[in-house]
């Protein structure tokens, strides 16, 4: 099960295909939150995620004529943005980027079901995962990609994706447990629910 | 009992796995605890707050799109003229261009009846009244069918290539007219005619592409 995907009005999409800028902006506004969420989680750097968002949507509008409706439009947009993110991760330049911004900068006013502290712990843990493990756990557990799809994206097999997912969870658990040990005065963190 | 995280994840995600292993994992208290932890982490990831996209990104996207030069094609000049002139004139011109010389074309080059658009039996389209929504839906359906055909061969004869390029250009021109018509508040009846023309062109393109795919042995 993945997060819900917005749906685009057919006429707005048709107008966007024809290059209508207002329609293109409507498409962007509808799908940018989803696209930026994906980019920000896969890339961790705000600047890199912004680049992926911008270039991803330039790709989307450039390829609109080729969209044949074989998959939901939102899923098609997401695939383009994910590919942009993977291109960045593979680039040598990505490895020379400035250190990641503080994780707290990711958080708006806490409105999620997690408390702000727990969200920060999980954000931090996610951001320090190796890139491949982070990509796999986010695409699989949150975005709903199958292991086969992830394997194809990464140029590997479904088995590779499964092993990376296992590695990601083992690492997350270790990081979250460390975070718990460091704050012994707090009650058992709800994210693990082990006590 | 020892287990692999991969096996617990397969159990968590209802993936196919050895039935005996599944039973042993479910019956093992420690494994069940780990399974609950894996579920908790997944749920916690899903409810992490979404970061807001930076507000200036759309302006940059638009600037990049606006910087893309228009297609250098003989159609470009005509499109530019039609886009700059009266929409009503370009719609009438499109009707003339498409209906002229074809069987049953009216002597009066004015717009066809606005209330219903009867389609001819060519290209397998039935003689039924259509409405705006059905034309848009039909256009989308034809796009999907086109997408299911194999990719175009890089080598094809000149006349086929020219026919495909011509149809694709006409469809692109119609898309531009549809956009302009909507933006300028052209009556729905006239916009419906543009969509009808688009469906005709899409049908024609589908036929040519299908024939091409047949020739290639698909």
Order of helices and strands of chain B: HHHHHHHHH
**How big a fraction of the residues of chain B is strand?**
under 5%
Residues in helices of chain B, as a percent range: 55-70%
Strand percentage of chain A: under 5%
Coarse structural class of chain A: mainly alpha
Fraction of residues in helix of chain A: 55-70%
Average of per-residue pLDDT values of chain B: 71
Mean pLDDT of chain A, to the nearest integer, reads: 83
Which segments of chain B are poorly predicted (pLDDT under 50) over 5 or more consecutive residues? Answer: 72-128
Return the structural class of chain B.
mainly alpha
Number of helices of chain B: 9
- Nearest-angstrom radius of gyration of chain B? 28 Å
Question: Which pair of protein chains has the largest interface, and what are the residue counts?
Answer: A-B, 68 and 47 residues
Envelope shape of chain B: elongated
* Distance between the amino and carboxyl termini of chain B: 54 Å
SS elements, strand count of chain A: 0
Topology:
The complex is a heterodimer of chains A (195) and B (218).
Chain A: H1 10-17, H2 21-43, H3 46-62, H4 73-90, H5 116-127, H6 131-142, H7 147-154, H8 158-182
Helix pairs in contact in A: 1-2, 2-3, 2-4, 2-6, 3-4, 5-8, 6-8, 7-8
Chain B: H1 5-12, H2 19-27, H3 29-46, H4 57-66, H5 74-84, H6 87-99, H7 132-148, H8 158-183, H9 188-215
Key descriptive features of the protein:
A: 195 residues, mainly alpha, B: 218 residues, 9 helices, elongated
In short:
The complex is a heterodimer of chains A (195) and B (218). Chain A is mainly alpha-helical and 195 residues long. Chain A is built from eight helices and no strands.
Could you walk me through the main structural features you see in this protein, from its secondary elements to its overall organization?
With 195 residues, chain A is an all-alpha fold. Chain A has eight helices and no strands. In chain A, helix 5 (116-127) crosses helix 8 and helix 6 packs across helix 8. The model of chain A is unreliable at 101-112 and 185-190 (pLDDT under 50). Chain B has helices at residues 5-12, 19-27, 29-46, 57-66, 74-84, 87-99, 132-148, 158-183, 188-215. At the A-B interface, helix 1, helix 2, helix 3, helix 5 and helix 6 of A face helix 1, helix 3, helix 4, helix 7 and helix 8 of B.
């Amino acid at each position: 099960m993945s997060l819900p995907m917005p749906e685009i009005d057919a006429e707005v999409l048709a107008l966007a295909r024809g290059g209508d800028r207002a329609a293109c902006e409507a498409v962007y506004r509808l799908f940018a939150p989803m696209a930026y969420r994906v980019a920000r989680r896969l890339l961790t750097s705000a600047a890199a995620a912004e680049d992926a968002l911008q270039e991803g949507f330039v790709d989307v509008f450039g390829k609109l004529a080729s969209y044949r409706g074989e998959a939901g439009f939102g899923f098609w947009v997401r695939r383009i943005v994910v590919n942009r993110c993977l291109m960045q991760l593979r680039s040598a330049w990505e490895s020379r980027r400035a250190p990641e911004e503080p994780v707290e900068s990711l958080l708006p006013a806490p409105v999620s079901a997690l408390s702000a502290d727990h969200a920060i712990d999980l954000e931090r843990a996610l951001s320090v995962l190796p890139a491949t493990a982070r990509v796999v756990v986010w695409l699989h557990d949150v975005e709903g990609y199958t292991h086969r799809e992830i394997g194809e994206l990464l140029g590997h097999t479904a088995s590779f994706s499964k092993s990376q997912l296992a590695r990601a969870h083992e690492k997350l658990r270790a990081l979250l447990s460390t975070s718990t040990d460091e704050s012994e005065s707090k009650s058992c963190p709800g994210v693990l629910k082990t006590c | 009992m020892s287990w692999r995280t991969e096996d617990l994840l397969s159990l968590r995600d209802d993936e196919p796995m050895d039935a005996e292993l599944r039973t042993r994992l479910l019956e093992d208290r420690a494994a069940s605890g780990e399974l609950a932890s894996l579920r908790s982490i997944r749920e916690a990831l899903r409810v992490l707050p979404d970061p807001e996209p930076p507000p200036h990104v759309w302006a940059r996207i638009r600037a990049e799109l606006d910087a893309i030069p228009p297609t250098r094609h003989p159609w470009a000049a005509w499109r530019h003229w039609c886009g700059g002139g009266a929409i009503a004139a370009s719609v009438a011109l499109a009707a003339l261009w498409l209906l002229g010389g074809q069987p049953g074309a009216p002597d009066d080059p004015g717009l066809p009846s606005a209330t219903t658009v009867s389609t001819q039996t060519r290209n397998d389209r039935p003689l039924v009244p259509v409405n705006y929504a059905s034309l848009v839906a039909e256009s989308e359906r034809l796009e999907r069918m086109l997408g299911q055909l194999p990719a175009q061969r890089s080598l094809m004869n000149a006349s086929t290539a020219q026919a495909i390029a011509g149809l694709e250009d006409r469809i692109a021109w119609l898309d531009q007219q549809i956009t302009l018509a909507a933006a300028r508040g052209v009556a729905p009846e006239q916009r419906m005619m543009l969509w009808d023309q688009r469906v005709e062109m899409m049908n024609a393109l589908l036929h040519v592409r299908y024939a091409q795919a047949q020739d290639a042995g698909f």
